[in-house]
Structure formats: C-alpha cells, structure tokens
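Postdoc handover notes: sequence design on the structure in folder B. Input tokens:
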C-alpha cells in the first residue's frame, strides 16, 4: 500500500485500530495523547507530530517500508564513493553565506537519517 497523504495514514490508523477492536480512547491512552488527537489523525488532519504518528503505527503493529524512487536512486548512484561528510557538509558556493546551504539532496538526507538511526525508537 502506498501512503502519500495524511488522509492515507489516518485511514491506516483507523482500520488497524478497528481490527484490534480498540476504542479511540484506548489507543489515545496507549499512545499518550488525547482522544481528540486520534480523531484528528484518523480524519487526516495535517500537522500531527511525526514521532506520535510513528508511535501510533507501531502500537497498532503497522510497519513502514521505505521505497526509493528512481530519481533518488540515480542521485544515490552519482554520490557513490563520495564520503558521507562531504554529502552532509559540502563547501558552500562562493556567492552563498556559510551555514545557509544544507547541501543535501533528498537521497543523501534520507541516507543520513537512516544511517544515524533517526527513525529508530
């Protein structure tokens, strides 16, 4: 299943909560949020804290697999052999103010998050 929007995630949360025969209040208590937060997320309201959404999915037994697009794969292949520190902190262009250029492609940022354990709980 491909999840692209907050509504997609909300639907997955609602369906899995119902499969487990959990009330919104029981899920809210387990996640550590209010029932209104669960209602909002299930309705697909944008702006929910990612960490709480991930915790909710974990509690419901939903696992997320990451699929890299062909464009990101091409960018990754271009960067093969380049030290990871160069991808995170390249030298700024002469006309740029240091500190304003993160210098990361989406693929490099993705690899950084995964390698640094940013998605682990």
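Designed sequence:
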């Amino acid at each position: 299943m491909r999840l692209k929007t907050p509504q997609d995630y909300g639907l997955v949360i609602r369906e899995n909560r119902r499969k487990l025969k959990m009330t919104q209040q029981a899920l809210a208590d387990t996640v550590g949020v209010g029932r209104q937060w669960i209602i909002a997320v299930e309705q697909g309201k944008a702006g929910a804290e990612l960490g709480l959404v991930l915790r909710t999915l974990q509690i419901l037994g939903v696992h997320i697999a990451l699929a890299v697009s062909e464009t990101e794969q091409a960018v990754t292949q271009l960067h093969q052999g380049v030290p990871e520190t160069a991808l995170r902190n390249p030298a700024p262009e002469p006309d740029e103010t240091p500190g304003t250029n993160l210098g990361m492609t989406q693929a490099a940022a993705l690899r950084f998050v995964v390698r640094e354990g940013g998605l682990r709980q």
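Context for whoever picks this up: The first helix runs from residue 6 to 19. Don't rerun without checking with the PI first.
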